[in-house]
Design brief:
Length: 519
């Protein structure tokens, strides 16, 4: 990637789109209103603080904090200063955080004051130089220290391929991998989505997602900032408040669970969403039932899109007529739409032979938002790319004759629960270490709220007696709460095929009915 720009720091691009009048509102928070100037100056002070630490180029800044506007400033500050932002889900427990810190070797860790005790212990044990705190109530040592720094800052001169963010994504082996995204990856996708989703003056984004994953951090925040649009900021999603906020918003982004929860509210009706322009769904499959009900209840057609941490957004249903597809403008439920402009998407068979439209196979992609590789895992990176540079998504799909992509399954053993990815291998490894456990299998079963939830099927050691509830309690301290299976059953043996592989499809069928019968 060569550069034509003077400075390819992504913050520079975002900053150029801020309104001329920086006193205008940028974020409406429960606590008050933040102006564009607040975002610019706050992130400048934090960038100066980080640069004052004289860290080597490419240093990682690991951040595990509750959702706040100051956390967004910290993200922007890291971009400005040319360091690498490493967001961590607040649900991660100490063993998980220890893995990320050990793997990424951050120079700085920022955590909540409430978790400083254990996070700083983990960080200092792994040689981290500085640990700051940041609460969601505008307190913490990060803000205390940043207050002494200048509120002017010139974004560090960067090249497009310079690293901006590392996003950890779990793997089928149970070992998390850090997906490395460059400034150009972020910039190209933000610009594409701004155009494809018809962002316009007057748009207001209702931001209700967590900000430690691609959906809430990139797709949502980048879109608002690069359009100079204000955000209505919800620290945590709550269906009733979200509907109330829709009176003043125009764009909403959610995982399917949020749409299911919104539909359960009696006050969701056409008047409540009269100001809204666009509803976007992603991160997990949106049931066609939800898609249809939403249309019936609100008159709006949800736009579903598809992406990954490694690639940011890849496909989208059209917002308006797509000239590349004979002007098609229909958002089709059950599909994730067209490959975005600049994204090459193909479907291949098991031998890597490219298939024609309407044939089902493995989805592979190439484009400007596809990541640089996995942090410190060159072999894993090489495995996931084809010889001609396509990334193997691990998703199974089909492209219709009109160009609509449908995801029909995954060839990775993955459960998507409420928009969060849960890799059974990781959970099984933790369960298998418990005393009295011989082996286990975790499978995903359909769930009305979360889409899918995990069920742990466990075999006890000979002579041992296992209490299913005790198994779940025992793993709670080791794993983020969303990864903990919602049910556990103890069985004599796991079904296996002739090759000795556990037949998860059989377990899925068996325990779907088992769990539903027990409620
Ligand atoms: C919370 N719990 C969950 C989940 N969330 N269990 C399974 N799956 C979940 N997603 C646990 C809680 O810890 C609690 O357990 C119990 O379930 C009930 O919690 P509840 O209060 O109902 O949950 P909540 O706090 O309201 O959260 C639900 C949520 C949240 C709002 C749907 O999970 C959420 O914000 N999801 C969005 C995830 C997201 O942004 N994904 C984007 C990834 P206990 O009682 O034991 O504590 S980016 C991505 O995938 C790609 C790139 C893309 O395409 O976007
Ligand atoms: P993550 O690892 O969190 O980036 O999750 C990426 C995975 O989420 C993709 O590989 C898909 O399996 C899934 N995904 C994202 N968006 C959608 C969608 N709209 N429909 C179905 N699956 C999706």
């Amino acid at each position: 990637m060569t550069s034509n720009n003077i400075n390819d720091n992504f913050y520079q691009l975002l900053r150029e789109q801020f309104p001329t009048d920086l006193s205008l509102p940028a974020v409406y928070d429960d606590a008050g209103v933040y102006s564009w100037s607040d975002l610019d100056k706050g992130s400048a002070m934090m960038a100066n603080l980080l640069q004052g630490l004289a860290l080597p180029k490419g240093s990682r800044i690991a951040v595990q904090v509750d959702k706040s506007v100051e956390a967004v400033m910290l993200y922007l500050a890291t971009l400005r200063a040319g360091y690498v932002f490493l967001p961590l889900n607040t649900a991660y427990q100490s063993a998980e955080v220890a893995y990320f810190i050990d793997n990424a070797k951050p120079a700085v860790v920022v955590c909540s004051p409430a978790t400083f005790g254990w996070v700083s212990k983990v960080a200092f044990t792994h040689g981290v130089g500085s640990v700051f705190t940041l609460s969601d109530e505008r307190t913490g040592s990060l803000l205390d220290r940043a207050a002494h720094y200048d509120s002017q800052h010139t974004p560090v001169q960067l090249m497009p391929d310079d690293l901006a963010v590392i996003i950890y994504t779990s793997g089928t082996t149970g070992r998390s991998k850090g997906a490395m995204l460059s400034h150009h990856n972020l910039a190209s996708n933000a610009q594409t989505l701004k155009a494809y989703w018809g962002w316009q003056p007057g748009d207001v984004l209702l931001h209700a997602l967590p900000i430690f994953h691609v959906h809430g951090l990139f797709v949502a925040i980048h879109a608002a900032l690069i359009n100079g649009s204000p955000m209505i900021w919800m620290k945590k999603f709550d269906a009733q408040s979200a509907i109330a906020h829709m009176q003043r918003a125009t764009v909403f982004m959610g995982v399917p669970t949020l749409y299911v929860r919104l539909l359960a509210q009696a006050q969701l009706n056409p008047q409540a969403v009269a100001n809204m322009r666009l509803f976007i769904s992603g991160s997990a499959p949106l049931l066609t039932d939800t898609f249809q009900q939403w249309h019936e209840r609100t008159g709006h057609t949800i736009l579903e899109r598809y992406g990954m941490s490694e690639t940011i957004m890849l496909t989208s249903n059209p917002y308006s007529a797509d000239a590349r597809h004979q002007g098609a403008n229909q958002r089709k439920g059950g599909t994730v739409g067209f490959a975005l402009p600049d994204v090459e998407l193909r479907v291949v068979n098991d031998d890597g032979v490219v298939l024609a439209n309407t044939q089902t196979g493995h989805i592979e992609v190439k484009g400007p938002s596809v990541f640089l590789g996995y942090w410190n895992m060159p072999e894993k990176t090489a495995e996931e790319f084809t010889a001609d540079g396509f990334f193997k998504t691990g998703d199974v799909g089909v492209v219709s004759s009109q160009g609509y992509v449908t995801i029909v399954g995954r060839n990775k053993d993955l459960i998507i629960s409420g928009g969060y990815n849960v890799y059974p291998a990781e959970i099984e490894a933790v369960i298998n270490k418990l005393p009295g456990v011989s082996e286990s299998a975790v499978v995903g079963i359909a769930h009305a709220d979360f889409g899918e939830v995990g069920v742990a099927v466990v075999v006890a050691d000979k002579g041992a007696v296992l209490d299913p509830l005790a198994v779940l309690t025992a793993i709670k301290g080791e794993l983020a709460n969303f990864k903990v299976p919602k049910h556990c059953v103890v069985v004599d043996e796991l079904p296996r095929n002739a090759m000795g592989k556990v037949q998860k499809n059989i377990l899925r069928q068996q325990y779907t009915s088992h769990v539903f019968a027990s409620h």
